Amino acid sequence: MIIYLLLPAYNEESAIPKLLVSIDSVSKRYNLNIKTVVVDDGSSDKTAETVLNAISGLAVELVRHSVNQGLGITLNTGIRHILEIANKEDLMVVMDADNTHSPAQIPELIDKSNKGADVVIASRYAKGGKEFGVPLHRRMLSMFASVLFQLRFRIKGVTDFTCGYRLYKMPVIHKMNQLYKPIIEERSFACSLELLLKAASAGARFAEIPMELRYDNKQGESKMKIVQTIMASFKLLSKKKPERSVKKSFSNTATYNIYQAPPMHLNNLIQLLS
């Protein structure tokens, strides 16, 4: 089994060398076959060059965008690439490239997936979760959004809808690839919410582990455009609730069953989950 670790990166020249060393350390310590895929989203610094210099001796592959296109497209690029090389028994882990997410939690994610979960979320709101260095206004905004999303979508096993640190079993990714072209439409950081909702619509079973978010390790300002992300996220909340149709889906024991429908756009996604 291979764990494909997807790192979307934009201007992470200073952070990514330490992260790659940490990933390698975790891989050796726990005897995990981790292959890291860094997608450089048209960085204006030396992110790509730094990754290339670090590749010697490490299981790292670099994919590059010539120009900055946003997190959603960057994730799409990485997911498409992993779909081409991964087997169905493999796993995909997505995490931030700025050292705010610790690779040391990868074994916990894997352990939870071995117990039956198709998607495992490193959650700030699971019992034992902690946040360090996060500004108060961002913590309050994230908590408010989490409560709204829990009330709106009621997905069993999910408290943190927006954190991008997650493990996915490859059959879930294949199912989403069948249902949605592209898997992700949203360019902003709201793509993390979109990806979670589409995993739910594909019949995924969810679980969480408590996460320690180390925002104090972050160098420089956040790249998330708060207003844009809020608007995109609330667009997902504002759709009308239609009648729900239930059919057998990806997982026989999944919390969510869906229409066996052709590929659809983001505007229709909310209708499947309401």
Describe the protein's topology.
Blueprint: E1 3-9, H1 16-29, E2 34-41, H2 47-54, E3 60-65, H3 71-85, E4 91-94, H4 106-114, E5 119-123, E6 130-132, H5 136-153, E7 166-169, H6 170-179, H7 191-201, E8 206-210, E9 212-214, H8 226-237, H9 266-273
Parallel strand pairs: 1-2, 1-4, 2-3, 5-8, 6-9
Antiparallel strand pairs: 4-7, 5-7
Helix pairs in contact: 7-9
Structural description of this entry:
- It is a single chain.
- This protein has a single domain, classed as Spore Coat Polysaccharide Biosynthesis Protein SpsA, Chain A.
- It is 38% helix and 16% strand.
- It has helices at 16-29, 47-54, 71-85, 106-114, 136-153, 170-179, 191-201, 226-237, 266-273, and strands at 3-9, 34-41, 60-65, 91-94, 119-123, 130-132, 166-169, 206-210, 212-214.
- The strands form two sheets. The protein has a seven-stranded mixed β-sheet with strand order 3-2-1-4-7-5-8, sandwiched between helices. A two-stranded parallel sheet has the order 6-9.
- Helix 7 (191-201) packs across helix 9 (266-273).
- Residues 239-264 and 270-274 have low confidence and may be disordered.
Give a short overview.
With 274 residues, the protein is of the alpha/beta class. 38% of the residues lie in helices and 16% in strands. It has one domain (3-273): Spore Coat Polysaccharide Biosynthesis Protein SpsA, Chain A (Alpha-Beta Complex).
CATH architecture: Alpha-Beta Complex
Tally of distinct domains: 1
**Class, according to the CATH hierarchy?**
Alpha Beta
Averaged pLDDT: 81
Would you give the CATH topology?
Answer: Spore Coat Polysaccharide Biosynthesis Protein SpsA, Chain A
The major sheet is characterized as:
7 strands, mixed
